[in-house]
Amino acid sequence: MDVKELLAGLYSEQGRQNPYPLYAALHELGPIRAIPDRPAQSTVSAVAGGYEVVDQVLRDPEWYKQSPPGWQDEEILRTFESSMMFVNPPAHTRMRSVFAKTFTPRRLGALEPVIERVTDGQLDRMAEAGAGGAEVDFVADFAYPIPALVMAEFIGLPEADLAWYRQRVDWIDEFLDVDGKTPERLSRANTAAAELRAYYRELIADRRRTPGEDLISGLVEALDSGEVDLTEEELISNLIVMFNASFVTTVYMFSNGLPLLLAHPEVVAALPGDDALTRGCVDEVLRMEAPVHFLARAAPRDTVLHGVPVAKDENVMLLIAAANRDPARFPDPDRFDPRRSGPPSLAFGVGLHFCLGAAVSRLEGRLALPRLFARFPDLRVTQPHSYSGSLFLRGVDKLFVSTGS
User: Fold this and answer.
1) pLDDT tens digits for 10-32?
2) Is the dihedral of CA 362, 62, 76, 291 positive or negative?
3) Is the terminal CB of the chain with fewer CB neighbours within 10 Å at N or C?
4) Rounded CA gap, 367 and 290, in Å?
């Protein structure tokens, strides 16, 4: 099987549901492979799945994110291209320095009681919904609301707005997939971006009138005082992208991870009260079932990457999820091992664009999972589950369980 056949397999429904055999086949071809006979309009010249090459490119600040053609004409792309997640230095450095100050140890410490309170509330709802053996949708009642409620409280979004907000998040995520650039998905993503921008403008105006203790209030105060080098429109773009990135990945960390954890009952039984084991489980879930499967970076100049020529401004597709199962870095990579030593996974990226919300996601996993299994030691999945069908953000959107109560 050559690299074109592997990519075709990844884009198939079977490949989207289980890409890991294809990633294993890619490792047999080497850490990076050129894509032969690619379409003339394609700027992706190679695909990389080796940990070393993916890590190298992500750490190199000269490899850059390439703006799609015509981005100025689309609301969703204008939003992306004015946020730190999608721009390059120096704009990236300027924006990230503002938001990096918000993810401080003090703020993370203040989130712990919030996560515990939100988790306990959702566990109460799960117990009520699952009484008498009734099935519960783990995503709707646990995996989604916990990170959404925590991030909403952190940023300053009213809880009542979250159902409305989630639909717009879904429209944006659909567009981000490799085959998401259809006219219909673009239209929905543009609508989502426009409506979210209007929503945040109103929220910012409200915080100017009545400031609180939330992130938006603090950023608006800093913006108006000239303390930060950021425009209001850039603030809005970053809030949209940060909320999406900071909670969708956590949703999938929980929903992708539950079947993996339940397949190891001895680990689940030991989780409550064992913080080191819990941290290992969170890291291993993120390694084996990374929510984000790929990124792309463009070459700053003509170069040779691990023996593969890449021309200036051509892109390399970086398969994060494949790198996380590279047998050269992770012995027996398909085995779940929460005591595993070795390099960190690339689930949250690395380098300039390392996910700012990674610490929050890990904290939510560390606090919520032991509570889940302490409350429901007989938790089990009751129906076969499938993945979203997206190759970019890959996760379980519905997962029916019995709480054993």
Assistant:
1) 988 899 899 999 999 999 999 99
2) negative
3) N
4) 19
* 81 CB neighbour count, 10 Å cutoff: 17
Give residue 342's pLDDT band: very low, low, confident or very high (50, 70, 90). Answer: confident
- Mention the CATH class of domain 1-60+293-346: alpha beta
CA–CA dist 53, 297 (Å, integer): 12
Phi and psi at 333, nearest 5°, equal -65, -20
CA angle 36, 40, 41 (to 5 degrees): 120
Q: Which CATH number fits domain 61-292+347-402: 1.10.10.10, 3.40.50.970, 3.90.1640.10, 1.10.630.10?
A: 1.10.630.10
pLDDT tens-place string over residues 216-234: 998 898 888 888 889 999 9
In whole angstroms, give the CA distance from residue 12 to residue 258.
25
| Number of other residues whose CB lies within 10 A of the CB of residue 323 | 30
What tokens were used for 133?
């053996």
pLDDT at 379: 96
Angle at 236 between CA 234 and CA 242, to 5 degrees: 100
